[in-house]
Design goal:
Blueprint lengths: L1 H15 L1 H13 L22 H19 L11 H4 L5 H5 L18 E3 L8 H10 L8 E6 L9 E6 L5 E5 L3 E2 L5 E2 H13 L2 H11 L7 H38 L9 E11 L8 E8 L5 E8 L3 H9 L3 H13 L14 H11 L1 H5 L1 E8 L5 H5 L9 E4 L1 H18 L18 H16 L10 H22 L5 H4 L12 H8 L14 H11 L3 H5 L8 H13 L8 H17 L3 H8 L6 H32 L3 E10 L5 E10 L16 E5 L1
Parallel strand pairs: 7-10, 10-11, 12-14
Antiparallel strand pairs: 1-2, 2-3, 3-4, 5-6, 7-8, 8-9, 12-13
Helix pairs in contact: 7-8, 7-9, 9-23, 9-24, 15-16, 16-17, 17-20, 22-23
């Protein structure tokens, strides 16, 4: 019966407001129409309207529903005040997410200041909870009721009360303690915001967690206010870490030179420099540059560059005129609250960041970044070359990047060499210059450089010349080693001699074995073809920049730490990136336990579980590194016909706790150390000391 009455009412209303209905329907249909050109032929069939087929059906359904609601006496479209809303186009998201009936939505009963029976989850400080229960009054015939005063709630801190059911005497219970250091806030709110910054979830991640847990969440304004507080503490801790790192570097340099450390003396050091961006491509709004010491591998300085300010963006959208925004912006910039510190292109951030870091190195650390390890195509070196006036900044090349040049040169040579060679065959194919052989030559080229590098902080000119000569000899040896020859002694005359040589022929000469396979070589026609490439990549100037054996691997490592805290698939403001960078510096130096010192600065001290979790994380990190190091050494030695014995050493420290460390040692061929157990290649020795 109800359905018939509704349909009857709809028909009557439709007849009474026919003109109004047709006008509204016409407007909805005409929204977004496209005029056809008179010179264009009419398309056969139904023209494309820009709407998918299934979306048309949904839109028709929504239009029918809107017609019913519009035709009722209480219709919003029938009134002039809301007629503009009916003219708005319907978005795809609105079609998918239809608003539910208001009767199904839960009422906001906790927002009206009432004291009601609590529900959902809350984060409660156990100390405060225990003390409240011990003080709570309860009559003999009554029991305790737990209620919440929502008007006194502050983020994740709830104001609860324990009330006696018999006499109604209540005892207040605040679920978190108050913190007055660096602003007024609650302990639980600071911890929650600090966690969201460390994990990269941000405010939306915290809201999602609270909604799933059925918990009230902190407001957006309070969240970003706490971000400012955490940023101050995080950057202060990172500054202390970098100051200590610079002091350790100075001590190392003076020790290498055999001199006494003097605080007033400016020291010349080698550093690795690299830039990273928050977004892939050339449109990133935020970039970060790092300077790391080559000798100690620690961060000396960093800088965050930003082309966006969240407050400026929000204020500009609210201001009605440009003049109003400009007046506000002048005051905003003068108060040092604006996050914009760069206005150029995104690729130019790297060079600008290098200028800033080099200009303040002497003031901060009494250090001059004289040797700079950077990318081959980086413009940063040209920007800082004359920073120290009389002391020129010298460029060093990353060995990893230089090694890749060999592979790129050979791949380009293979792709550009068309037709057949002098022997009537193409450059590629079986027994020719394949991708596998190119990678092998590239690996040999990297070893020729790495095995002759100097680890001294300030090598002499003679030591550099000797290292460059040895590198050249080994690089030329790779070319002759890879080309087939009838005279094996002449073919391998440049290869390193001895049992530890990478050349199997030289190994056989030293050990008296027969493992070398002469068939695995390129034909002689490749000698003249590959010679220009080897000559180019064995130039003295190039190899001099590789003598230190420096790489940018540490820079890539700390870059990964930053974007683990600020994932690139999500947008993050400048302050969130600054927090992530400062946290990465602390974690890079001191591990997960560095969070404990930051929490002390924030007056949210780390407890037992915090320290246990940090210790476990650092232990896993060290164990993983040791395991990878031993496995890499084992695989490398086994490929040369050697055995690697893994020694597990067990000892007891001063407090009587057992500590197990993983150590690796090498034994050539079948030499067997004392104390071995088992007969397999992977041996284990347990040594107590």
């Amino acid at each position: 019966m109800g359905k018939h009455v509704t349909a009857f009412t709809y028909i009557l209303d439709k007849k009474s407001s026919n003109r109004e209905f047709l006008a509204t329907k016409f407007k909805l249909k005409m929204t977004g129409t496209k005029h056809r050109s008179q010179y264009r032929k009419k398309r056969k069939g139904n023209a494309f309207t820009g709407v998918q087929k299934h979306a048309k059906k949904v839109r028709k359904t929504s239009l029918k529903e809107s017609e019913i609601t519009q035709s009722t006496p209480s219709s919003a479209c029938g009134q002039s005040s809301s007629s503009s809303k009916c003219d708005e186009p319907i978005s795809a998201s609105r079609l998918k997410m239809r608003p539910q009936n208001s009767s199904d939505c839960p009422s906001n009963s906790l927002d009206d200041g009432e004291t009601v029976q609590s529900e959902g989850y809350r984060l409660v400080d156990l100390k405060k909870f225990s003390s409240t229960l011990s003080e709570a009054h309860v009559c003999d015939e009554g029991h305790l009721n737990l209620k919440e005063n929502s008007s006194m709630r502050s983020g994740l801190m709830s104001d609860l009360s324990v009330e006696c059911s018999s006499c109604s005497e209540a005892t207040s219970l605040k679920t978190s303690s108050s913190v007055t250091n660096q602003g007024q806030s609650f302990d639980v709110n600071r911890r929650a915001v600090y966690h969201s910054l460390e994990t990269g979830g941000g405010y939306e991640g915290l809201v999602s967690f609270c909604s799933i847990m059925n918990m009230p969440c902190i407001s957006s304004a309070a969240y970003y206010k706490l971000v400012d507080t955490i940023l101050v503490a995080q950057e202060a801790e990172a500054k202390d870490e970098m100051q200590q790192a610079s002091q350790r570097l100075r001590d190392y340099i003076f020790k290498e030179n055999g001199e006494k450390n003097c605080d007033d003396v400016v020291v010349d050091v080698a550093v690795s420099f690299d830039g990273t961006w928050a977004k892939r491509g050339f449109t990133s709004l935020t970039g970060v540059v790092f300077v790391l010491a080559v000798d100690t591998g620690e961060v000396l300085d960093y800088h965050v560059l930003s082309k966006e300010c969240r407050k400026c963006t929000m204020k500009k959208s609210r201001c009605k005129t440009d003049k109003e925004f400009e007046e506000w912006q002048i005051e905003h910039i003068s108060s040092n609250q604006c996050d914009i510190n760069f206005t150029g292109s995104s690729p130019a951030m790297e060079a600008e960041g290098a200028k800033i870091l080099w200009s303040r190195s002497v003031e901060l650390h009494k250090i001059r970044y004289k040797w700079m390890v950077c990318d081959g195509d980086s413009k940063a070196h040209a920007a800082v070359e004359d920073t120290y006036d009389e002391c020129k900044v010298e460029k060093l090349d990353c060995v990893g990047h230089v090694q890749k040049r060999m592979g790129k040169h050979l791949m380009n040579l293979k792709s550009t060499t068309k037709g057949k060679l002098a022997d009537g065959k193409s450059i590629g194919g079986q027994g020719r210059l394949t991708e596998v052989r190119i990678k092998r030559i590239q690996r040999y080229y990297g070893l020729a450089i790495r095995q002759n590098t100097l680890k001294k902080a300030h090598p002499t000119e003679n030591e550099v010349n000797v290292a460059v000569y040895t590198m050249k000899k080994n690089i030329i040896a790779i070319l002759h080693h890879s080309i087939q020859s009838k005279d094996l002694a002449k073919q391998h005359r440049f290869c390193p001699v001895g049992e530890s040589s990478w050349c199997k022929w030289q190994q056989d000469i030293a050990t008296g074995t027969n493992t070398y396979k002469p068939d695995d070589c390129l034909p002689g026609v490749f000698c003249d073809l590959l010679s220009p490439t080897f000559m180019t990549l064995s130039e003295s100037k190039l190899l001099e920049r590789c003598v230190r054996g420096a790489t940018q691997n540490r820079n890539e490592c700390i870059n990964a730490l930053v974007w683990a805290r600020c994932p690139k698939n999500k947008h993050h403001g400048a302050k969130s990136v600054r927090c992530a960078v400062a946290s990465s510096v602390c974690h890079f130096h001191s591990g997960a336990s560095s969070k404990e010192r930051v929490m002390e600065r924030l007056s949210i001290p780390a407890g037992v579980f915090t320290k246990q979790a940090s210790a476990r994380k650092d232990k896993r990190r060290i164990r993983k590194i040791c395991t990878n190091l031993v496995m890499n050494t084992r695989n490398r030695k086994q490929s040369r016909g050697e055995y690697t014995w893994v020694i597990y050493a067990r000892c007891r420290d001063g407090i009587g706790q057992e500590r197990t460390g993983l150590f690796g040692t090498k034994f050539i061929k079948s030499e067997k150390p004392s104390g071995c157990e088992g007969t397999s290649e992977k041996k284990k020795i347990l040594v107590d000391y």
